[in-house]
Amino acid sequence: TQLLEQSPQFLSIQEGENLTVYCNSSSVFSSLQWYRQEPGEGPVLLVTVVTGGEVKKLKRLTFQFGDARKDSSLHITAAQPGDTGLYLCAVIQGAQKLVFGQGTRLTINP
Amino acid sequence: GAGVSQTPSNKVTEKGKYVELRCDPISGHTALYWYRQSLGQGPEFLIYFQGTGAADDSGLPNDRFFAVRPEGSVSTLKIQRTERGDSAVYLCASSLVGTDTQYFGPGTRLTVL
To answer: Which of A20, A67, A71, B71 suits A102 as a labelling partner, its CA being 20 to 30 A distant?
Structure first.
């Protein structure tokens, strides 16, 4: 059983459309992170959310942490081909180790 | 270099062979991590170093896997008697102590034939 369940696993949409991907758990977390990973590269941190209900914006990306701090969503407005990649949510467990979800593989078609 | 570097970028080996994967962290980062990413999955934690010592090795799958960081900088992940199931991308990350941001290298893609 995965600690973090991400959905959908795959998403392919046209340029200009909006989309939302989800990261869910039955556990409560003090913080949650979102990463983007491109082929042949390591994950790159996009944002850390720490407060229940918190909303953070990064250009066209909007991240929300659930009120109960068990889940999070990532919304992309007017998706661009450059948004293509694997989106991973993660939490810090123990001293410092990251536990990742299985990711959402996003493809934006021109 | 400014980022985390890993060598080799690709390694193909035969079942039963020994391999070493190298990680050069960002200068000044005392924390170093190894993760393994199988196809279609998120990275899975293997081991965490604080300085020269392994602070948490709970993710190493078995005793064929070993990692060292003798001088508190470069780290080597060593895999003995490789198996086909070891095929994956091995990622290294580093961070400053007390911060939540880990910086990842590009990974080494290991293929065991």
So the answer is: A67
Q: Do A96 and B107 touch (CB under 8 A)?
A: no
Query: Could you tell me which chain A residue has the CA closest to the CA of B99?
Result: A96
Q: What is the pLDDT along chain A (110 residues), one digit of tens a residue?
A: 789 999 999 999 999 999 999 999 999 999 999 999 999 999 999 999 999 999 999 999 999 999 999 999 999 999 999 999 999 999 998 878 999 999 999 999 99
B108-112 and B10-13 as β-strands: parallel, antiparallel, unpaired?
A: parallel
Phi, psi of B20 (to 5 degrees): -125, 135
Measured between alpha carbons, how far is B34 from B104 in angstroms, rounded to an integer?
9
What values do phi and psi take at B63, rounded to 5?
-80, 5
Contacting B residues, span 60-89, partner chain A, CB-CB under 8 Å? none
- Determine whether the interchain pair B100/A95 forms a contact, defined as Cβ–Cβ distance below 8 Å: no
CA distances from B36 to A22, A71, B18, B60 (A): 23, 24, 17, 10
